[in-house]
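Technical note accompanying the year-one report. For the benefit of new consortium partners, we illustrate the data format agreed upon in the data management plan: each record pairs a sequence with a structure-token string. No post-processing was applied to the example shown here.
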Amino acid sequence: MECKVTSFMEDLNSLKIENLQKWFNDDSKIWIPPAKEIQGGSRILALFRAIFRKYENIEWNASEIFDLGKGRFFYETVSVGHLKGKGSYRNNICTVVAFAENGKIKLLSDYFKDTTAF
């Protein structure tokens, strides 16, 4: 199942919404601060569109993927890029993700080391 995390991160790094569509459905929930938790594939994809627009470029490098059992994982990420009009961006993130049996993301929640950029 670790490959699901890796595959999701590859699709995220593509910065293409069409690559992310396969990961979410109406039951999916995501919480990426400072936004509130949202549910539903179309709303989640809209959030990613908004996130991508904030950056000239951004990349997430996941490491240390821990299997928590029952389709749940915890992983560390370093995100680096350039915020439009604000310069360089770098942050450490911890993520909890749960996959449904069908491979869709049931829940994804990020925890940021530094929130001053937001």
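Partners are asked to follow this layout when depositing records. The two ends are 32 Å apart (CA to CA).
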